[in-house]
User: What shape does this take?
Amino acid sequence: MAEQGVLTGVRVLDLSRGQQGAVATMILSDYGAEVIKVEPPTGDQYRKKPAWRVWNRGKKGIVLELETPEGRDQAVRLAQSADIFVESFRPGVADRLGIGYTTLATANPRLIYCSITGWGQKGRLSQYKDYEPLIAAKAGRMYGLGGLVSSERRPTYAAVQVSSWGAETAAIRGILAALHVRQTTGRGQWVQTSILQGTTCHDFQGLIGRQLSRKYPKRFTDTSENVNYLLPGGFTYFTARAKDGRWMQMANNNPRLFEAFIKCIGLSDLYKDERFTKMPDTVKPEDKEALREAILNRMLEKTADEWIEIFVKDGNVGAEPFGTVQQAMNHPQMVYNKQFVEVQDPEVGTMKMVGLLGELRSTPGKVQGPAPTLGQHTAEVLGSLAKEPTAVESGSNGHGAAPKHPLEGVTVLDLSAIHAGPLSAMFMADLGARVIHVDPTPEKMPREDRAGPMPVRLSAGKENIQLDLQTPEGQEILHKLLPKVDIVFHNMRLGVPERLKFDYETCKALKPNIIHVYMGVYGDKGPYARRPGAHPIPGSMLGGALLQAGPTMPPSPDSVLNMDELKEAHRWMMKANEGNVDQTAGFGVSTAMMLALVARDRTGLGQSVSIPMISSYTFAHAEEAFDYSGRPPREVLDSECHGLNALWRLYRTDNEGWVMLVCQFDEEWEALCKATGRADLLDDPRFRTEALRKANDEDLSSIFAEVFTEKTADAWEELLVAVDVGCVKADGPVMGSFLEKESHVIDNGFVVEVEHPQFGTYLRHGSLVFLSETPPQHRPGTVAGQHTKALMQEIGYDQDQMDTLRTKRVIDWNDVKPVPVG
Assistant: This one.
């Protein structure tokens, strides 16, 4: 095991403000980088947030006044000694301060300069405030959550800051990809990402689905406008109340797991009823409510702990109680994973906070210590400027030509399935890696499963081989592929890799420096490691669903509910546990892959990597994933799920429109009051300070609820953006339409036109990160079996051998033909 972290010897200069840059550099620090946090003399304005102590742990803290020539000169000189520079200013600000990319790259050509913006570097929205709720509202994410509270088509506040996590991890992947390239070229480059790019990933299939439904109306239906308020028809992700009033989330997304669930709750006799013989997927609509009631009633017979004991003993049922991040700190698997660590903070004492992103077993990380006090290391760091300024990271002094794309020459074997896994590998393909995805043969997976909007999206940029790994011949083919592979990745249950012969030891024997990455819900070791699960499990365990549900749901444990009330709570909790966990997992897993790849660049070591979904989702709760004595409570949604407080919420406007308002600093408050014609509020004793405004939040909400009815949503956006107050229209379009039609998205390259082999030209989601010298690679989705023959020939099989293997159903291929329009 290496004694040093992945990034030992790498110096990072962090001039970001708030969460996005801070969390990105925090993770770089966790894996060995020296991170210098730069603040103005008054301190980062986000220091008032308790989570700031988590975001900035392990860093050195210095003060620079960038508005002065001396401060700018010090920043430039520090950049000369840095490997990485991170900033989160709005476009143009860094140039105005004299610390833009061109200036610093001239001073230090090896510098990797990372910009994290709200909306992107150009376009009509680029100067809008960069608060995630504004971006989520404008892009249609909040509109897509409509229907949680009522059947009315209106936006619902998105409670978990998942888009920020997308931007944070995209920044890290971009930085690590630039480090990987610098090993060859010796030169740095400009890395760019944005919260809006992180938001686009939460469009599951709207963008592509809308296009396919127009082109092939008989084959595809556009579902992006559906409110989805009615009781959900699916039973695999069932929610239910237990005897003690606690609510539970089930995740049994195949017939075998669902049957195990039904058996454990004692309802196996339902399979004898002709209405439910093939449940859950083929139950007729008129019979679904009978099945729903049967399960809801049975779950009321035992407490949540009793059910969990039964499910854990069985080992084949995915289920967890709904809880909070703080409760998850004591979950047996979280404790085993060391997902939370204790840090001694100089001001608040012992803090329990989120630990490492993933376990890299040859180059492990370590939380470096608490966040710095303001200016704690100024004298130490500025004193080093007297020395000759040279970039400190070693082993990257090459002078070779840059590759066309960052990960050109890197091969990823993608053995994952469902959503989060393929998404992770797709991010690697966008960075230029050759990604080979292995699909089962048609008998194991009908080809039509790969013909919808989601498969088109998740297969982007990949090659595809159909291969039956349950046969000796299929395993032999896999073993001929593995020596060509740099990273092998899967999310199968434990024991399957050993049985199918692609476990780490087997892969390592075939290629000693291979990187073997496992993504499961819980991890690859520990008391829950063999339990099944899917995206709703982290959502329930770690509090995302409870945050999204708001204060009225679920009902209090001692309340008495009739069946209609029970069904409504069941519906609400299913809707609240929305599908953002798959995206957050994809963000985290692909980032762990990049960490392991850079570790191999620097040490020559391959390794085994475990990056569970519960880990990635914990980081998506960067505002919440900590605890200490005296910790202030987190603000929660109001009963209608409008937002967190009067100045951070959705408001109805004239003509039944909606806006999202975010106004969190004093200068914004003053501008808001003046622009809305309520300057009188500035002298109102109830609202003179931030603390008073929070204490009188209900009054303030009522006032602005009335104010915002005076104009349309578009008019409010235009008026308030002009005075630099965060306010955007929030009542549409849906995200798929926004991505397809919004000029700002197109101008920034956040969607890209490509040519699908079956469906022709379409717009796909763009890369989450851009690198100036080695741009991303945007390729279309592929078809199951599209590359089988080419890959088989590459590893030495001739046509006769392939025909024989196809006859034996070991392999299959697809002679792809365009689908006629209609």
Summary: DSSP finds 34 helices and 27 strands in the chain. The longest helix spans residues 162-185.
